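If your schedule permits, I should be very grateful for your opinion on a structural question. I would ask you to consider whether the tokens describe a fold that such a sequence might reasonably adopt. Thank you for your consideration; the sequence and its tokens are set out here.
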Amino acid sequence: MTTIITKKQEVLNLTTIIFDERLKNWITSIRDSYDSKLRQASTMIQSLDLQKELRDIFIRTSYVGMLENGLALGKSNKDYPNIYALFMLLISEIESCNNWNEVMTHIIRYIQLEEYVNLTHLKTTSIERYSAREIFDGKTIFNCLCGHYVKSHLFKIRNTKTEIDLWCGCDCIEKSKIISSKEMKACKDRYERKRLDEIIQREYLEEQARRNKEYLIAYQQKEKERLDALERHQKATYSQIIKVFVSPYVLQKHKEIYREKLHLKEGRKLLFNIIAKSKSKR
């Protein structure tokens, strides 16, 4: 059992308590017995003492088979989420709730934050009136409704429908949902399926990217070969043009000039003269 924070930053309370009619009847009997005390607790100290008494009642009177493992509640800190779930059921409209989801739907709809107390600024006289206090490292340690130690802040919440108040710590005040282990398993299965789908999708995209890269390389190679072939064709065509429109005599003389390494200026003059004579002979 634990507190779970989802990717959406939702704080979930995982419980192993089986929600059934027996649980509802048991909590109803406890609330009927403590209804007047719950409504008469006017101070934080009175409420904390009453919550400590209720936690002891939950543990002492819990029945075998309450939990999914077939056992009753214990005093281990692993049962803190179960205690939280019982308190939420206690202050809700028990009769109209058929599962933990409906309990928290009701709580979220009607819950109201009344006040909060910074415990570091609490007066010593107030602490001394807290009969259920515990001393740790020379400091008074207060408890959240689930039983966990609270050192900094306590928050007073009220169900405006049932008009019952509770005091809880920094973690429990953020919880928005109670889920059973079966629901948790279903969530894990959905998460696992989603994770596998994401892996398959990622592998598909990687394969597509690989194929696209191979296609691009092949296309670039083919385009290079096409351009090389076009360049060779253009060169061949240019050579054919030269052979057709320039006489062999001119070409031979041109080669002789450069073979004998004549100066550029003199070579040009000689070339022009040769071309001019060849034209006059035609």
Notes: The CA atoms of residues 191 and 197 lie 10 Å apart.
